Amino acid sequence: DTGVSQDPRHKITKRGQNVTFRCDPISEHNRLYWYRQTLGQGPEFLTYFQNEAQLEKSRLLSDRFSAERPKGSFSTLEIQRTEQGDSAMYLCASSPSGESPGETQYFGPGTRLLVL
Amino acid sequence: GENVEQHPSTLSVQEGDSAVIKCTYSDSASNYFPWYKQELGKRPQLIIDIRSNVGEKKDQRIAVTLNKTAKHFSLHITETQPEDSAVYFCAAGYFSGAGSYQLTFGKGTKLSVIP
Question: Is A102 in contact with B91 (Cβ distance < 8 A)?
């Protein structure tokens, strides 16, 4: 499968615990996005990487959230001290450079987080 | 920031009929408009997109139209089939100014195709 992959697919944790999710983008894509999707809503932008540089973070990304893309390939999203309000689907997407206007984003299957 | 409104929120059609979903956007700087289909528990899948330099695009039973003046775009599905049943999201894309190209999504339309 040459699409975007995410791991784990499901995570159940207790409030206050830390969780980490991984995203592997399509190999030739240098742009990577994290989104959050809650029930009945569209995906909401969290953060963006171009290669290893994190260029933008949404106001939705509180101080408890941190994302990395250390070698410009896979990315991790960590949530510290989880809260019940963090329960959601976390989606990763990647896109190639060079399209104009607009960049086609391809989504991974998501990690569904449930905080008890 | 950009705001995308999507209507209707639910849509039921008989198999073989057409379905139309409409979206409006607020930021004239948006220049890319993709449509995603999401089945329950699965990833959003791009089904068609349109860029601001064209007004209409077709791919077999699916078409999208864009009216930049009115800031609205629509998805048209003809000859609907039960497998078209899913949630459909529209989105508007723009450069944020901080270096990223952002998509703002609508809230989705749940399409049910009745056999």
Answer: no
